[in-house]
Amino acid sequence: MPLIQGRQYLWEIKMLSSIHGTDVVVGIGTAHVDLAAHSRKFIALLGNDAESWGYSYKGDIIHGGSREPYGPTFGKGSIVGVHLNMWTGTLEFYLNRQRLGVAFKIPKNQILFPMICSTMGNSAVRLVTTMSWAASLELTCLQSISSMPSLSDIPGLKAIWGRTFWWQQATEIKKKSEEPQSTEANYELEIISSGEEEQEKILRTRKVVRSITRRRQYAKLYY
């Protein structure tokens, strides 16, 4: 079944066997991926054309035949998560429930399917998580709030996230190319974040959270 436009999807795949060889790639593809193009070659199927996007066990992301450094390598026992937002067209990956950041911007109105490929014989994987949500104001607000640590202690917010929206609060793994900022830079960022504009943003977000909580309470009372 193709993924539905306007929804967000999250699925996780656990690697059950040792990984070695040419490639093992997790990702997505359109209905136009040529599944027989490399049937006689040890080449990763995903990412070698314009119709598929993938995250390799070597730590690279692949699309259109090009590879770019992206995240850590993964192997036996690793859990690779895939988060596809069909509303915004963003594709990002998780490794052991740690966020790796947005990997691709996918053109909208594509007919997409979850995919995985391996050039290694006797590969074994297991689908351990599948979730999806319709695009909504509530979900967008929760995603915005998750990037504001100062709001994480709002009463009732942790219950709303619960086990379902853990991926919004997952810690993002720093890329290898990212260098830590100097003490002066960190101090400057703290001053900026405590400005009036940030405080107004926090107050507006708190109002939205209270509104969401009240709607949930009314729903329980009347339904």
TrEMBL record:
One of its GO terms (biological process) is proteasome-mediated ubiquitin-dependent protein catabolic process. It comes from the Eukaryota. GO terms for cellular component: SCF ubiquitin ligase complex. Residues 1-134 form the B30.2/SPRY domain. PANTHER family: SPRY DOMAIN CONTAINING SOCS BOX PROTEIN, SPRY DOMAIN-CONTAINING SOCS BOX PROTEIN 3. This is SPRY domain-containing SOCS box protein 3 isoform X2.
